[in-house]
Amino acid sequence: MTSAQAVSVTAFLATLPRGLRVFIAGSGGEPLAVLAAMPPRPDLTLLALPIAGVNRTDLPAIAPVEAAFMTPELRPGLADGRVRFLPLHYSEADAWLRGPARADMAIFRCAAPRDGGVSLALAHDFVPALAAVGAALVAVVDPGLPDVPDGIRLPLDRLHALVDGPSDSPILPAEVPGSAMQAMARHVAGLVRDGETVQLGIGAAANAVLGALRDHRRLRYHAGMISDGVPALLDAGALESATTGIALGSQALYDRLAREPRIAFRPVSETHDAARLAAIPRFIAINAAVEVDLFGQVNSEMIEGRQISAQGGVADFVRGARRSAGGRAVIALLSSGRGGTVTRIVPRLAPGTPVSITRADIDVVVTEHGVAELRHADIDRRAERLIAIAAPQFRDRLAEEWAAMRRAM
Prior knowledge:
Number of strands: 27
Structural class: alpha/beta
Low-confidence stretches: none
Radius of gyration: 22 Å
Distance between the termini: 66 Å
Number of helices: 14
């Protein structure tokens, strides 16, 4: 079916063989035009890493799914066996796609063809892994996507099919941080020194920290994804360059990417490789969490026994930062939730809650109430420092819980 001429979605789906294991790109690479037209295909297996709140397709309604991320749309399938959930780090998800996943095909969005190839546009993360192992590549063309100056291009003669399938790109609105989030962001920014390389995720906390870094200088950015806050830092003169795998944000961000050579797009094998990260001097990994216990253990993927997310790249970045010369691993979260009725600094993680990051892997925990330095601190000093940055209404109870836990050790 290989051709430089794009075929229709209907024509492509009519040729899709039975029994394939098909990778469906996530984030801004999700091939919505194909998925919307695809009838139920229980003979297929879909391999996916969708992002909650961004990729909303009900994949289990199409075919059985194997996923290394969790979203609300996948959870019913997890309950009834239509979804298999693999708890993988981002770097391990890349390794899984290169081998154990046994992917036959990858379907993803791309920019309009140019000079004998196509740009992966908004999502350069996992498709290169599938290309490396010889999977059939199906590029769904959307002329509205940016052909980024510094990113991954696939030659047309490597494609199994070129499909005409424009669709809307996911828009991730920038949340306005509240006063507590702004206070937390100022504490985090105080840990970052000029000339360092910073990693952040996306969301309200990441945007708040990016805003708080505007007065820094000579920063570099290396992360799995970027949002609108990164170009804003470039414009403010705080940031010199950025390396990422994914872009999620506003249409203004996507338009900017088509003409921004200072933002480089790379695959997961480069953005999340611990050895590469460790080789970056003064690499500061800043990540969010659901909760942190008094031992310093971090849960970043489950609430009240419900799998709401996945490990993602947090552990990759934490490990890279810990090995970086002058690097540090920072966890940033608000001290309470649900209007101040629930503490997010907890005595211990609840039974059955996965430890996303071990207590030995964290350097610093930050809330709106301050900074807790944990590296090289003994267990009592760790608990004391974490209680000091907990919401004031919970500190006495946390101290009592720690005293009881300590007596039992």
